[in-house]
Amino acid sequence: MATLKEKLIVSVTEEESTVPNNKSTVVGVGQVGMACAISTLGKSLADELTLVDVLEDKHKGEMMDLQHRSLII
Hints:
The chain is an alpha+beta fold. The protein has helices spanning 4-8, 31-42, 56-70, and strands at 23-27, 48-52. It has a two-stranded parallel sheet with strand order 1-2.
């Protein structure tokens, strides 16, 4: 049998998800951009990270480096 308190106080929100659903974009994969990307991954601030740069070769290299580092982080 439910108590009066249980009848009056009802949760109206869904339970919070334990997994963040955040996306982050880093524009520029130079030293500062990569430092931001590594910090974002290291602190688990986002579950999706996008890197943007005009230099395709540098972008591809840094992306592969982050993929390899993510195994360690």
